[in-house]
What does this fold into?
Amino acid sequence: MLKGTLYIASMLVLFVVLTSCESNFREVQRINSIGFNPVGETEDINLVYTDSGKVASTLVSPLMKDYTQLQYGFNEFPKGVHLTLYDKNGAKTHITGKYAIVYEETDVIDLSGNVRIYTEDGKELTTEQLYYDQKNEWFYTENYFKFTDNKGSFLEGPGVDFSKDFKIMNTQRSRGAISNFKP
It folds into this structure.
């Protein structure tokens, strides 16, 4: 009889603990789902950034979701992005990716999914993820990359960082062939 009473008491305690946890879990889910909704969505966006009256860059995307109300706000581009950067002479650098996030506080763009960056003079780099630091005009990735130019040069390997015009490149463990090298 004592075993039966002890068994019933332990089952009752277990039932109370499990049902109280379920209630808290659902409340946590509700709180989290409310806070992570975008404050706005824009379709077919075409942003033009200017500096001193000159176009510095353009950003084109089929969809932008605005999460800037969060503590670490960002804009999400879940259907891809095409970014064009202009230098002081008007030369363009194009960047495309299937997905992107622009972090508001740091001005870093995280591009992923078949990322391609190319210039008008034939330089091209492809990778699966690429970060762009807008303040310093600097790109970097830890992922595998492949770089080619119109002179027959190529470079590939894991990890690279470089300036937006490809004039400065720092690689980690790369291999390749450089044509027309001028010290």
Notes: The mean pLDDT is 82. The helical segments are 2-35. DSSP finds one helix and twelve strands in the chain.
